[in-house]
Specification:
The protein is mainly beta. The two termini are 31 Å apart. The protein has a single domain, classed as Electron Transport, Fmn-binding Protein, Chain A (Pnp Oxidase, Chain A, Roll). β11 and β12 form a beta hairpin. The strands form three sheets. A seven-stranded antiparallel sheet has the order 3-2-6-9-10-5-4. This is Flavin reductase family protein. Belongs to the flavoredoxin family. Its cofactor is FMN. Keywords: Flavoprotein.
Amino acid sequence: MKQSLGARTLLFPTPVLLVGTYDEAGVPNLMNAAWGGICCSQPPCISVSLRKATYSYGAIMERKAFTIGIPSEEYLKQADYVGISSGRSVRKFEVAGLTPVRSELVDAPYAAEFPFVLECRLLHTLEIGLHTLFVGEIVDVKAEANVLGEDGLPDISKIKPLIFDTSHRNYHGVGPVLGQAFSAGKALAE
């Protein structure tokens, strides 16, 4: 029998999304955000929810753009650092030893070291409560050649993205392939 845990922010898996923005002075900033994911297929969009108190909130509202970087396992410390410090008081790219790259398509930076990046222009905002949901139209996806599969698409086992455990506040990696989506369930219909 299931036990009630109450209304809580528990969901598995939760991606680690690194939000790239420029502040008013054009200083690049990164923020670790766990509340987000793909929210529309056409146009391709991603959502990320931020508190108004975050430095990135104001930057997105001002610049109408952001990037989403997907850090690989080797950048766990850097990904965590940009989530526990504020761009108001430190230059996170410098402290984390990351290289800011200016997007050619949107007014936001991303870290050169992260193998997979989404460049987004702000499409919608929705005040929900403590958080504001930002919907960004994905204007381009950039991936390092070494994380692409033979089909030219990103390979999750090569990206090795971080996954956040919302209940215990731990980071995890991805496991082995268990089955083919949109195919494994067909055996039940036979």
